[in-house]
């Protein structure tokens, strides 16, 4: 079940984030810094923060910016699937649901940033139709590869 984040989810979100050690390490962050940064991002206005549950627990999270102020596209700022579930096909299923329900109704161009050393994530996004656009630096000073997906709407 996918639904928007609410303040009542905070403790469970924190608990989920501290278990995602691989993602934190790829970000070059301590697990506490990774948790704190993402909890703060989920509390901010201006994005659509999603909690994805299965069997009563959080199995993934996503954070979307529906319209980037510079390029006008939808940005998928964060998509994290519980690392114990990697390789099960769940990420693919969940991403397809997020795209269908929370992305396609608003935009035809999607962008995201992938850490240069996260080859597994890069391959995942490319399988989902994203292509390399450029190198960039986030507003937090992190270097990323920007990937872009352009939908073609039937006429």
Give a summary of the structure in a few sentences:
With 155 residues, the chain is α+β, with helices and mostly antiparallel strands.
Written description of the protein model:
- The chain has helices at 10-18, 21-26, 31-43, 90-103, 119-127, and strands spanning 2-4, 48-54, 57-65, 74-81, 109-114, 131-137, 143-150.
- A 7-stranded mixed β-sheet has the order 1-2-3-4-5-7-6, sandwiched between helices.
- Helices cover 33% and strands 31% of the residues.
- With 155 residues, the protein is an alpha+beta fold.
Structure keywords:
alpha+beta, 5 helices, single chain, globular, 7-stranded mixed β-sheet, 155 residues
Mean pLDDT: 91
Distance between the terminal alpha carbons, to the nearest Å? 32 Å
- DSSP, total strands: 7
Rg: 15 Å
Q: Report the structural category.
A: alpha+beta
Strand order of the largest sheet: 1-2-3-4-5-7-6
**Strand-residue proportion:** 25-35%
Range of helix content: 25-40%
- Stretches with pLDDT under 50, minimum 5 residues: none
Order of helices and strands: EHHHEEEHEHEE
How would you sum up the global shape?
globular
Topology at a glance:
Blueprint: E1 2-4, H1 10-18, H2 21-26, H3 31-43, E2 48-54, E3 57-65, E4 74-81, H4 90-103, E5 109-114, H5 119-127, E6 131-137, E7 143-150
Parallel strand pairs: 4-5
Antiparallel strand pairs: 1-2, 2-3, 3-4, 5-7, 6-7
């Amino acid at each position: 079940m996918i639904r928007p984040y609410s303040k009542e989810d905070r403790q469970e979100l924190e608990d989920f984030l501290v278990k995602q050690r691989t993602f934190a390490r790829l970000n070059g962050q301590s697990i506490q810094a990774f948790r704190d940064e993402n909890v703060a991002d989920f509390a901010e206005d201006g994005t659509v923060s999603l909690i994805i549950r299965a069997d009563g627990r959080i199995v993934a999270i996503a954070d979307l910016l529906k319209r980037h102020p510079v390029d006008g596209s939808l940005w998928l700022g964060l998509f994290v699937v519980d690392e114990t579930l990697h390789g099960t096909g769940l990420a693919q299923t969940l991403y397809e649901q997020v795209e269908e329900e929370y992305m396609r109704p608003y935009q035809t161009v999607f962008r995201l940033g992938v850490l240069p050393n996260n080859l597994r994530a890069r391959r995942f996004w490319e399988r989902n139709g994203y292509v390399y656009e450029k190198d960039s630096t986030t507003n937090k000073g992190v270097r990323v590869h920007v990937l872009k997906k352009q939908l073609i709407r039937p006429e």
